[in-house]
Amino acid sequence: MEAQSVDLLIEIKETVGIITLNRPKALNSLNLEMIRGMHQILQEWGKNPQISAVVIQGAGEKAFCAGGDIRQLYDSVKSGGDDHMTFFEEEFVLNEYIFRYPKPYIALMDRYVMGGGMGISQGASIRIVSELSKLAMPETGIGYFPDVGGSYFLSRCPGSLGLYLGITGLIFDGADAIYAGLADWYLPHDHFQILMQELVTLSKNPKEMTKEKISRILERKLGGETNLFTKGRSKLAKLKFAIENHFSKPTVPQIVESLKNEKNPEFTEWANQTLEIMEKRSTFAMVGTQLLLRYGRELNLSQCFAMEYGLIPGWMREGDFIEGVRSVIIDKDFKPQWKYSLNDLNVEQIEGLFAHVK
Q1: What was the pLDDT predicted at 14?
Q2: For residue range 176-217, what is the model confidence (pLDDT) as tens digits?
Q3: Rounded (to 5) percent helix, strand, coil in the chain
Q4: How far apart are CA 113 and CA 111, in angstroms?
């Protein structure tokens, strides 16, 4: 059985359903049609006794999925329309559904995995990265906040690590993803196709297609690694003390001041680089992200998605999304004129956008 559309390829091998994001020139970024197609086929497969597991992957040699189609969202917000709200609503419903999927859902998080790509992979039963994986929640760079469940999965990273990743939008690798709790297995890129073959073979007996059996194949047959991979190979693990020392501060200005005062020679270069990154990010977005994750720690999955969705209208009205996208995506001058600096931002203004949470 095989079917396909332009942007989403749907295939079944034995009892494994395979979804391939098929916009390689756009780094497999998600549009509304892809989100709807994914949700529909996942629902069908979830009820189909002939499907034992689902694999999601990206086409091409550059990305699993680099996010949502930002240009379409920009056009909707800019024109005063509401297509972007439809996109976010359906995307978030899909993201939450994946967290609750009734069958093994295996995300092959190879190469770039950003924004919306994290949204369709963080709820997976098994999240697999490689030595080529490059992950990020880069939204503050376009004046937005880490959505698609970021308030849930970033706030549950060790210590203040999720806040560091959310505020800076840092790109991190497979070892860091495992350390952060944002991936489960490291598998060499060359073994991904072998894994697919093993999954198809295993699925000939659908009762064998369990998370435990798949994990056994990853470890014993393919040499996959979990926490072992992070030992000595995660840059974030080596920065644990410094990240916690600075990003545990209660406000963004205090984080900045703390970074400026870093005296440990082991961390001064990192602190200066972090300050340079933060200087390029939207202040509104950084402060909003800190509030988002603070609330997210106390909320369950559904509440986190509801918070994120409820935040969007006010954010689009008062935040830096339009200017950020203009600078990075439209004009590509990379010189955004953010509305606020750390000195003149009224934090209460942003807190007001979270009134629906309280």
Answers
A1: 95
A2: 999 999 999 999 999 999 999 999 999 999 898 999 999 989
A3: 55, 15, 35
A4: 6
- Residue 186 and residue 203: Cα distance in Å, rounded? 22
Residue carrying the six token digits 């091409």: 60
> What is the C-alpha separation between 68 and 114, in angstroms, rounded?
9
Mean pLDDT along residues 50-71: 95
Structure tokens at 85: 């709200």
Place of tokens 């509304």: 32
Contacts of 69 (CB under 8 A, 6+ apart): 26, 29, 30, 31
What tens digit of pLDDT does each residue of 335-353 get? 999 999 888 887 888 999 9
| Entry pTM | 0.94
Q: What fold characterizes domain 2-354? A: 2-enoyl-CoA Hydratase; Chain A, domain 1 (3.90.226)
Residue 271 CB neighbours (<10 A): 20
Helical residues (DSSP H) of 125-191, grouped into ranges: 150-153, 161-168, 174-180
Q: Which of 140, 250, 131 has the alpha carbon at shortest distance from 192? A: 131
Alpha-carbon distance of 215 to 332, in angstroms, equals: 43
Mean pLDDT in residue range 68-81 = 89
Model pLDDT, residue 2: 46
The C-alpha angle with vertex 141 and arms to 136 and 147, in degrees rounded to 5, equals 60
Active site residues: 68, 116, 139, 147
Cα gap 145→320, rounded to integer Å:
10
CB 122 within 8 A of CB 180: no
Which among 245, 243, 340 is positioned nearest to 284, based on CA atoms? 340
Query: What does the block give as tokens for 129?
Result: 């990265």
- How many angstroms separate the CA atoms of 32 and 84, rounded? 9
Mean pLDDT of 8-17: 96
- Grouping H, G, I as helix, E, B as strand and the rest as coil, residue 132 is coil
Q: CA torsion sign, 288 to 293 to 299 to 300?
A: positive
Q: How many CB atoms lie within 10 A of CB 212?
A: 8
